[in-house]
């Protein structure tokens, strides 16, 4: 069962929202409704998030990301549609139960860390537990563990203003982790950070996720960030999800011009992996030698570096060491040049023909 499911979610702000939903369902877009003073923030959003997945919602400012997120934790009531969390319909839970789910099962991490300046780092990290009424000793123990997970073990007694922006954001993350919530909702959590710190936080989140296997919905307006973090990515435009898929789906099979224009600046060689370019071994025994090999999830850029040192196609080995495929150099070059690897066909060339005839004569 999926952990989280959005089922035909709509959020309309303004007059006659139900009528607006009918018009949107019939194909009207945001612009048509705006003329009447109605904002269609989210239009017909449907998706599922599996346990342990990082689901990224990516879109420009105003595309409806935060509104969607607030419906996922029940802070905003959908105008139409349902949110299922572990199979339970959040939209129809009584207010008290909904508050209980929100306090214990779901944690939010915002863009601005919202730390209390007059509370220590430890008290800040323990805040979610304090709200839940967890006794002091227990909450401090769990907060210390969460701070350690986030690399802040030695900072518990410090004040927030003694910490850098990245460290403050990690306290925000520790606060979310301390509550033991299964579902983390992260709204532009890294967007206020400098690029290097931001990258560091992305690495840390991926590292933590390997151990903790939370279910995470992560919102960003940065496609590179979406591609680094997301197991699946929803691209939003003007309230609608215009594509839903893996980073590879979006890069190799963009649906429509909007998504295609978005991916132009993405470095494909760092996002796509050996699995996306490999092919069946062409000859028996190919890849069975002791030359350096790569794993299916090695980024193409690193496969290039290996290819430069190996005199034949690079072997791609699975976790058991078996050859899952090979990557010939022509496929890599075609890929970096923006061609689909399968379209890479050598053209006839008189010079090459005479060179190989000479080689044959010498042999
Ligand atoms: N409470 C509200 N009342 C009226 N309109 C709203 C309300 N909240 C959001 N909107 C409108 O809904 C649309 C989507 O807003 P939302 O905040 O979800 O976008 P976003 O994708 O999170 O943008 P950003 O990247 O700037 O945070 C916007 O046009 C916004 O003005
Ligand atoms: Mg937002």
Automatic annotation (TrEMBL):
<dbReference type="InterPro" id="IPR051921">
    <property type="entry name" value="ABC_osmolyte_uptake_ATP-bind"/>
</dbReference>
<comment type="similarity">
    <text>Belongs to the ABC transporter superfamily.</text>
</comment>
<dbReference type="GO" id="GO:0005524">
    <property type="term" value="F:ATP binding"/>
</dbReference>
<dbReference type="InterPro" id="IPR027417">
    <property type="entry name" value="P-loop_NTPase"/>
</dbReference>
<dbReference type="Pfam" id="PF00005">
    <property type="entry name" value="ABC_tran"/>
</dbReference>
<keyword id="KW-0813">Transport</keyword>
<feature type="domain" description="ABC transporter">
    <location>
        <begin position="4"/>
        <end position="263"/>
    </location>
</feature>
<protein>
    <submittedName>
        <fullName>Glycine betaine/L-proline ABC transporter ATP-binding protein</fullName>
    </submittedName>
</protein>
<dbReference type="InterPro" id="IPR017871">
    <property type="entry name" value="ABC_transporter-like_CS"/>
</dbReference>
<dbReference type="InterPro" id="IPR005892">
    <property type="entry name" value="Gly-betaine_transp_ATP-bd"/>
</dbReference>
<dbReference type="InterPro" id="IPR003593">
    <property type="entry name" value="AAA+_ATPase"/>
</dbReference>
<keyword id="KW-0547">Nucleotide-binding</keyword>
<keyword id="KW-0067">ATP-binding</keyword>
<dbReference type="InterPro" id="IPR003439">
    <property type="entry name" value="ABC_transporter-like_ATP-bd"/>
</dbReference>
């Amino acid at each position: 069962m999926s952990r989280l499911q959005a089922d035909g979610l709509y959020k309309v702000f303004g007059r006659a929202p139900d009528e607006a939903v009918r018009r949107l369902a019939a194909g009207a877009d945001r612009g048509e409704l705006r003329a009447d003073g109605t904002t269609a923030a989210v239009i017909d959003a449907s998706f599922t998030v599996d346990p342990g997945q990082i689901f990224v919602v990516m879109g420009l400012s105003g595309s409806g990301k935060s509104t969607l997120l607030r419906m996922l934790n029940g802070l905003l009531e959908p105008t139409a549609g349902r949110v299922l969390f572990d199979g339970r319909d959040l939209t129809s839970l009584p207010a008290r139960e909904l508050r209980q789910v929100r306090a214990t099962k779901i944690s939010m991490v915002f863009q601005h860390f919202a730390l209390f300046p007059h509370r220590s780092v430890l008290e800040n990290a323990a805040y979610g537990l304090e709200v839940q009424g967890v006794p002091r000793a227990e909450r401090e123990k769990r907060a210390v563990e969460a701070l350690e997970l986030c690399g802040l073990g030695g900072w518990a007694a410090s004040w927030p203003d003694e910490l850098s922006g990245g460290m403050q954001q990690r306290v925000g993350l520790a606060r979310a982790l301390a509550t033991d919530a299964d579902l983390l909702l992260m709204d532009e959590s890294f967007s206020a950070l400098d690029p290097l710190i931001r990258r560091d936080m992305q690495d840390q989140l991926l590292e933590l996720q390997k151990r903790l296997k939370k279910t995470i919905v992560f919102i960003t307006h940065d496609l590179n960030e979406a591609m680094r973090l997301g197991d699946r990515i929803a691209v939003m435009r003007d309230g609608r999800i215009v594509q839903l898929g893996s980073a590879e789906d979006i890069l190799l099979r963009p649906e429509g011009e909007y998504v295609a224009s978005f991916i132009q600046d993405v470095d494909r060689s760092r996002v796509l992996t050996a699995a996306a370019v490999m092919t069946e071994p062409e000859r028996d025994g190919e890849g069975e030698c002791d030359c350096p090999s790569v794993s299916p999830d090695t980024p193409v850029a690193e496969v290039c570096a290996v290819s430069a040192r190996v005199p034949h196609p690079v072997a791609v080995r699975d976790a058991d060491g078996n050859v899952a495929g090979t990557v010939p150099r022509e496929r890599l070059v075609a890929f970096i040049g923006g061609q689909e690897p399968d379209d890479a066909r050598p053209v006839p060339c008189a010079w090459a023909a005479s060179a190989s005839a000479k080689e044959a004569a010498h042999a």
